[in-house]
Specification:
Blueprint: H1 2-9, H2 11-16, E1 25-26, E2 30-31, H3 42-49, E3 53-55, H4 72-90, H5 94-108, H6 121-133, H7 137-147, H8 152-166, E4 168-169, E5 173-184, H9 191-200, E6 203-208, H10 213-226, E7 242-255, E8 266-272, E9 275-294, E10 297-303, E11 309-315, H11 321-326, H12 329-335, E12 342-353, E13 355-362, H13 364-369, E14 391-404, E15 408-421, E16 439-444, E17 450-456
Parallel strand pairs: 5-6
Antiparallel strand pairs: 1-2, 3-6, 4-5, 5-7, 7-15, 8-9, 9-10, 9-12, 10-11, 13-14, 14-15, 16-17
Amino acid sequence: MKKFVAAAIVLAVMLSFAACREKGVIPAGKTVTPGTLSQYDPKKCRASYADRLVAQAVYPVSPQYPDGTVTDKEAEEWVKFRKNRMDAASAIDSSALGSFVKKTVREYLTSDDGGNRVYSPVSLEIALSMLAEITDGQTRAQILSLLGADSIENARRQAVSIWDGTYRDDGIGTTVLADSLWLNDGLMYKKPVLDILADSYRASSFSGKPGSTEYDSALRGWLTEQTRGMLDTSGVKLDPRTVIALAQTVYYKVSWENIFRETDTGKRDFEGTKGRVSVDFMNREIENGSVYFGDGWQATRLDTSDGGAMWLILPDKGRSTADVIASDGMFDLISGNKNGIENRRAKVRLSVPKFDVSSQTDLIQGLINLGVTDAFGSSADFSPLTDVPNVFVSEAKQAARVVIDEKGCTGAAYTLIVATYKECPGEKETIDFILDRQFVFIVTSDNGIPLFVGAVNDLTA
């Protein structure tokens, strides 16, 4: 199960690299440069949101891997932490997660424009589970159906198991998840559901005036800190009518189990959807490797320092990444079900391009296609969260980026779901109603029966 979850986090890598012609492009034509991996300032990020913080989530302490420099006690703590992670991963409903991954990957990673796509199923899964917590009725039922959960308790249990089963920062691998709530300081909320989000999802809470420069800056600072500067957050802004914004992030960094030698990297042509281009390819021989053959594709894996892997799936010539996504074989492979998939043990001469791919995805239409409809319209039910009327999801998006080089793989994603109200409470239209001329009145009883009806035509007497 651990390998399946790790694969779900970076699943988009193996699907998008076959279309990788150039470095990934953020919408509006902004190319993300490798320098953003190290140029962010965590202190400035924290300073941007410190005044807006209501409750800070407490994250688990990840003991460092016992590499010979730690004490026996510290080594025991790492073993215990690892066991807890494995126990949590084993509690994941793999069937429900597998179905969710398959449906959403097919929805968000196939397109006609031939561009790169990166998507984190885990980030969306947890964000949708939080959304289910603050909704009810058909709105919640539709979300639960997509998640494959028959109750909000099971959806919560699944999200917690994914969170606890993947979270680590122990020196040999980093998979850090974070959740947060962004509230409107002019509105009232129901405490029980906020407590659930804080306790079960480890969600930090913030409060401020949505749409203000300070609050927008705080949200961008939090997202930037959690994704360690990998993603462009400059376009993140909240509508002044925001009731709540749910933010979920994933940051992932591992080394290859056996790194590539930079001296073996060389130029090679890559044939992408937009033509041929010469790029840097990393090269290595794997003496005892495996290549898997499915219907129209072949695959191998790059083992990582934390015991996980990056699967690399190559469509046969004449086939596309969309063809691979449409088949079940790829999903069976990463879930461990290799029935019908040929495995050849061989010396593998691997040549893989270095890449830096990123994308930003509007999630709304995809969720509607997958059956989550009520959350985006007048039928939305946010009664567990607030009594504010006419609340609906106005924005749902995910940004993600994955970079690989000779040393390893780094990835980050954030999912942002924003609920707003259609009419601004406390800012109603003002109408002067002055009875300074003839008028009619009707007096009714408490059950609507007209007791008196009159016409006031003259007040001179």
